[in-house]
């Protein structure tokens, strides 16, 4: 008898998602009862946001891995390594610094702070590589759902681009680079705000800067293409519409990077940004309208994302 589908989900990733949900709850309580702040934000806001993001990331990968027919053993181990060497070190470092009441990112104030940030940086690089590897093996599956066959690789590609935005934040700002060139020893290297110092006024809950550009916006939006595009594919069931959605999503991510690097807050776009956003929206809307009026070919609605053989054979070593 084939086990219920939910029982085939990747165990370590599911446990990771549950643990992140618990951390979200703890962090939410911390935001209420702990009045300490770091850079103008409650010390527990960053663990809360990262736990939420990692929970979605882990659940998405657990679902994707549960659907595969090929490379199951490889994907299972890649998922486990992702939890052990990416998610856990990253969230542990962030939570550790929150408990201490100090900044986790870009913090070079002490040897300990520098070491913690180096751990986070190494985990982020490894997470990027592991997500790429998982994406490659997921793309190599046999699928009956052609829309999903496009949504998964495009979602992985845009998500990797969103992850890469994080590396822009680790580079020294012009002022920091000048100080370093002069031999100064800095306690902060890197920033997520452009055109204003980190720690200025920000949006409620999200904390994104309102006094300058914030690279975290594009980082967040791009990262979650991994969830958004497969959901769109499940909804529209048509390859052309998925391609239009991917184009629009990638365009939005690029637009947000461009806006932030020009020192503009998300909620204070200038005329040029609004014009570019309007053009992107017009192209996506026009393409969607044309495609929705055109005859739809069957995209095998209602079938599994991945190919389902009549009788599934599992090797004993692959019963995870």
TrEMBL record:
Signal peptide: none annotated. Keywords: Membrane, Transmembrane, Transmembrane helix. Residues 310-320 have a biased composition (Basic and acidic residues). Residues 294-320 are annotated as: Disordered. The chain crosses the membrane at residues 12-32, 44-63, 75-96, 116-140, 147-169, 217-236, 241-260, 272-291. The keyword Membrane applies. It comes from the Bacteria. This is Uncharacterized protein. It comes from Nonomuraea bangladeshensis.
